[in-house]
Write a structure and sequence with these properties.
The protein is of the alpha+beta class. The chain folds into two domains: 194 residues, no CATH class; 71 residues. 45% of the residues lie in helices and 13% in strands. A seven-stranded antiparallel β-sheet has the order 6-5-4-1-3-2-7, with helices on both faces. A hairpin with a 5-residue loop joins strand 2 and strand 3. The longest helix has 26 residues. The N and C termini lie far apart (81 Å).
Length: 279
């Protein structure tokens, strides 16, 4: 007779879903999350972590894989923020993650449904380094997730990633566990303590001082360098949005939209501050 572990491995991943983990408090994440222009639920997830969960199923296009959607959203959130964003995702065939941090290339890893590794080992070390995780414990634990294990399916691999992050203060609300389908995740997030909706609040939100000052323009604040950076964000946003449209990728269209919003916000903020009377 098959063992409990074998029976577990025979079970397919249950539906399609994913979550976004932001290494920042909800108050810092909310303005940027609104720029995605997708209804999401935002909740605290332990010390200096927040979790974003899509609250409507149309977030995934019919022909667009969940990994592209979630990776695009992570890149969109991280490109103008001083904190990294981790996307965890799964479908009937695979599970994995993608870490976005600023304008650097995202790093991620994939497992097949039965837990077989399908990524590059070096990605785990880069992942740990970018998050500043323990160079001994975390790297050793993450390396273990890249080795064959007949008793670990994709769900177990993702739980292993979360267990490593728990040592960095991550504590997901009850019910937000890998391989649950998107609607079940949304229901669980809706019952989390401190949960809020992070919806699009209009273009006035883009020029809120706290949002602009938290972006990559923030350290420059005002002046020629800030205007050049904001203009570069506008150009990159147009290019990335066009690239995403050409490939029908909602996630990367969202990333382009956030870059556009950050650029417009930086220019508007500089103009408003420059036009304000000085007392």
């Amino acid at each position: 007779m098959p063992t409990d572990a074998a029976r577990k491995r025979e079970q397919p991943l249950r539906g399609t879903g994913g979550i976004l983990l932001c290494r920042a408090a909800p108050d810092a994440v909310a303005p940027a999350a609104g720029l995605l222009r997708r209804p999401t639920l935002l909740a605290p997830a332990g010390r200096v972590w927040s979790v974003l969960v899509p609250c409507e199923l149309p977030w995934q296009g019919e022909d667009e894989p969940v990994d592209l959607v979630l990776s695009g959203w992570a890149a969109a959130l991280a490109v103008g923020a001083p904190w990294p964003v981790l996307a965890l995702w799964w479908d009937a065939d695979r599970g994995g993650f993608s870490l976005a941090s600023g304008v650097r290339r995202s790093v991620g890893y994939v497992w097949l449904a039965d837990g077989r590794p399908a990524g590059e080992d070096e990605a785990m070390r880069t992942f740990a380094a970018r998050l500043g995780l323990d160079p001994v414990f975390a790297v050793e634990a993450l390396d273990g997730l890249t080795r064959p294990d007949p008793d670990a399916d994709a769900a177990a691999r993702l739980r292993g990633v979360l267990a490593v992050l728990a040592h960095d203060g991550l504590a997901l609300p009850t019910g937000l566990v890998p391989v649950r389908p998107a609607d079940a995740l949304a229901d669980a997030a809706g019952m989390a303590g401190g949960v809020r909706r992070a919806d699009w609040a209009g273009w006035r939100e883009v020029v809120r001082p706290e949002l602009v000052e938290a972006s990559v323009v923030g350290p420059l604040m005002r002046g020629r360098r800030a205007r050049l950076l904001a203009t570069g964000q506008l150009a990159a946003g147009v290019a990335l949005g066009a690239w995403g449209l050409g490939r029908r990728s909602g996630g990367w269209v969202a990333a382009g939209g956030v870059l556009l919003a950050q650029g417009l916000g930086g220019l508007a903020y500089d103009w408003l501050r420059g036009a304000a009377p000085r007392g």
